[in-house]
Amino acid sequence: xxxxxxxxxxxxxxxxxxxxxxxxxxxxxxxxxxxxxxxxxxxxxxxxxxxxxxxxxxxxxxxxxxxxxxxxxxxxxxxxxxxxxxxxxxxxxxxxxxxxxxxxxxxxxxxxxxxxxxxxxxxxxxxxxxxxxxxxxxxxxxxxxxxxxxxxxxxxxxxxxxxxxxxxxxxxxxxxxxxxxxxxxxxxxxxxxxxxxxxxxxxxxxxxxx
Length: 210
Description:
Elements: H1 2-30, H2 39-42, H3 44-59, E1 65-70, E2 79-81, H4 82-86, E3 92-97, H5 102-117, E4 123-128, H6 130-133, H7 138-147, E5 154-156, H8 162-165, E6 173-177, E7 183-188, H9 193-209
Parallel strand pairs: 3-4, 4-5
Antiparallel strand pairs: 1-2, 1-5, 3-6, 6-7
Helix pairs in contact: 5-9
């Protein structure tokens, strides 16, 4: 009787070993091995973006680095080239302003209203050039944004040549730039909501036909 029990025990143990081995083999056989994405497909979007950035940069009066204050999908302190903002495919309204510039202060609420109205169709970006025009520091610029509850994208630059390269002869100055980097038109001085809306509509029409 004891021998029979030993036989049955050995048979049971052997069966368990076979079952576990089968499970292990089954698990290995059923494991899917993902095929790597071809390098060409993986880098296609990056390559296209680089081409757009190069095209835009070549058409601009000058490309320049931006330190972000707020908005445009970036965090405070992020560094980006202006051409990268344009390469996203929207026309850009580039507003040169400063923290201690009275006309800049006056027009900012109107810029905010237009930015909200055309969100997703045109990007309004405020570039603080106060340190290069004697109209305030970057801290003054940030303080003005906060005081007026301005939320449209804004930032500054370390490139003091931007004032000369964009021929800033008065403050504020606003550039209307098509998605390919070509300047459609410029405006020196304060803009009202009505006038800015008119100019943005013209920019959108020109961009659509370019």
